[in-house]
Amino acid sequence: MSKKILIVGASGLLGSKILNKLDYVANEIILLARAKIDCDERIIQIQTDFENLEDIDTQQIDDVYIAIGTKLSLSELLYIKKSKRDDFKKVDFEYVKNIANFGKRCGAKSLSFISAIGANNRSLNTYLNVKGSIENRIIKMNFNKTIIARPSHLLGKRKGEAFNIAIFIFEVVTNFTGLFLFGPFKKFRNIDAAKVANAVVDSMNNQQNGLKVLEYKDFK
């Protein structure tokens, strides 16, 4: 069945994988972004700063995919300086909330959101606290179907990103140590972004409504 699908974050690693997974021939795809990207001309692109989404003409949307977030260094995942916290919260909470509200106004029945492993609104870690808080806000919006993906570190080549020796070393080490993570710790293993995208799209397209939280075991 043909759908109207909104994707936010298609220029990023995971958002681009979601876009590639979707059938833009059978469905109408709309991208919401700050800048246009190079993609099939049949895909509709709307530019916005995410501040005033109410100014965008409301149109019927079936599914919403949210894959945006502030780009953080490895150290910032552990500790975000106070001077940067407001900007982080603006993007990862306020903008995500604005997008979800926009989807609701457009009549969307299903929404997926890329969160993070360990997201918890009671965490003392700013990154995990904000991710957990926006998860709760989205859940309370009561979409017919809500998919929340909680991957650990994403593997994959990021378009336009220069080689980073720190990330390379981190991935080599954690890919190896991840082999020794079992049981409840297995969810902290690194995961290929394409596998996360596949699981999110498959979950959005199945017939089961309600809340579904995806973690490592679900990323096939």
User: How many angstroms separate the termini?
Assistant: 24 Å
* Helix/strand order: EHEEEHHEHEEHEHE
**Count of discrete alpha- or pi-helical segments spanning 4 or more residues:** 6
Radius of gyration: 17 Å
* CATH homologous superfamily classification: NAD(P)-binding Rossmann-like Domain
CATH class designation:
Alpha Beta
- pLDDT averaged residue by residue: 94
Low-confidence stretches: none
- How would you characterize the largest beta sheet? 7 strands, parallel
- The global form is globular
Number of strands: 9
Examine the coordinates and then state which fold CATH places here, giving the name of the CATH topology.
Answer: Rossmann fold
How are the strands ordered across the major sheet?
A: 3-2-1-4-5-6-9
Describe this structure in words.
There is one protein chain. The chain is α/β, with parallel strands linked by helices and 220 residues long. The chain has a single domain (4-218), classed as NAD(P)-binding Rossmann-like Domain (Rossmann fold). The protein has helices spanning 13-21, 74-78, 82-105, 126-139, 165-177, 193-205; strands at residues 4-8, 28-33, 44-47, 63-66, 110-114, 145-149, 154-155, 191-192, 210-214. The strands form 2 sheets. It has a 7-stranded parallel β-sheet, with helices on both faces. α1 links the parallel β1 and β2 (28-33). The model has no long low-confidence stretch (mean pLDDT 94).
